[in-house]
Amino acid sequence: MAFIAQVDFKMDGPFGDEMAVGFSDLAKSINEEEGFIWKIWTESPETKEAGGIYLFETKEAAEKYVEMHTKRLAGFGITDVNAKIFAVNSSLTEINSGPVK
């Protein structure tokens, strides 16, 4: 069973193309995380929020990543991180063309 990690936090920027350039090394490093399948990056310049939706192979991998990422964000001065982990209902997700393993 796959698991989703939903993470969001307040951030002053950068956003858009500037975020894509500035965070490309971070994005590449996420690919190396244990049990990682994919990430959708999220951002809202209007509300100064960013985050992502991640898919992991196991709940343990998702939990480990959230713990590590929360510490990493704290190193950037971001301490109010919202993170939730959900099991994926693959049968229903497939009906709606969701990309799950």
From TrEMBL:
InterPro entries, A to Z: Dimeric_a/b-barrel (IPR011008), YdhR (IPR014910)
Keywords for the protein's UniProt record, in alphabetical order: Monooxygenase, Oxidoreductase
SUPFAM superfamilies: Dimeric alpha+beta barrel
Superkingdom as given in the UniProt entry: Bacteria
Gene Ontology MF annotations: monooxygenase activity
Pfam families per the UniProt record, alphabetical: ydhR (PF08803)
The keyword Ribonucleoprotein is assigned to this record: no
Gene3D superfamilies: 3.30.70.100
Name of this chain's protein: Monooxygenase
Organism whose genome encodes this protein: Planococcus shenhongbingii
Taxon lineage: Bacteria, Bacillati, Bacillota, Bacilli, Bacillales
